[in-house]
Design a protein that fits this description.
This protein is an all-beta fold. The strands form two sheets. Strands 2, 4, 5, 6, 9, 10 and 11 form a seven-stranded mixed beta sheet that branches.
């Protein structure tokens, strides 16, 4: 199994920055893609960004140029640097990871961290 622990959420003014972290631990052979989804009140969960173990990244159009995802494979940790934050970025951010465990590849989720951007 894979446990994901997130940190770094909070309240920030529009134009400010936050950095989220997500560390994976547990019994797994490998972690492939890691990333972040977010869910705003009354909206569906949406993919924000992802990164493969090789470093290939993908971003939602709404965050391109403002958010940067990175990871440290030796620490099984992924980071999300969020700059130029906007009120519409307000949401609960969920880390996810695709882990190889007994039985095959499975997707695991963090508990979520609140990001609130005030105008």
């Amino acid at each position: 199994q894979v446990q994901l622990v997130e940190s770094g959420g909070g309240l920030v003014q529009a134009g400010g920055s936050l950095r989220l972290s997500c560390a994976a631990s547990g019994s797994f052979s490998s972690i492939a893609t890691m990333g972040w989804y977010r869910q705003a009140p009354g909206k569906q969960r949406e993919l924000v960004t992802s990164i493969t173990s090789g470093g290939t990244t993908n971003y939602a159009d709404s965050v391109k140029g403002r958010f940067t995802i990175s990871r440290e494979n030796t620490k099984n940790t992924v980071y999300l640097q969020m700059n130029s934050l906007k009120p519409e970025d307000t949401a609960v951010y969920y880390c996810y990871a695709n882990g190889l465990v007994v039985g095959g590849w499975r997707t695991y989720w963090g508990q979520g961290t609140q990001v609130t951007v005030s105008s």
